[in-house]
Write a structure and sequence with these properties.
There is one protein chain. The protein is α+β, with helices and mostly antiparallel strands. The protein has one domain. It is built from 2 helices and 5 strands; from the N terminus they run ββββααβ. The protein has a 5-stranded antiparallel sheet, with helices on one face. A hairpin with a 2-residue loop joins strand 1 and strand 2. It is globular, with a radius of gyration of 14 Å.
Amino acid sequence: RLPVWLCSVSGRHSVLFGTDSRLLSDWKSERIFHLYFYSGQREQTRTAHLTIDTHSHHWEEARREGPCSPGQRRPALEMAIRTRWPGATVSWNGTDPFF
């Protein structure tokens, strides 16, 4: 009834899930939505709350930083999310990105 993805990110198993069942049946719900990530690893003390924006403008981000800038590198979890929503931006909502 709720969207759940079992992930293997950087060789570690984890769960990415949403609490909005509309993500399963209404593509319009995929504009801006929330996902939660839990890896069960010792270094993760609480579930990460992520905000996904699938209609962000990737070219605006590209203007702020050069292509070789360390800021252009993305955590593996963000790249995994982008396999489902190409070009989406991921906000970690105050959590330091990991993976």
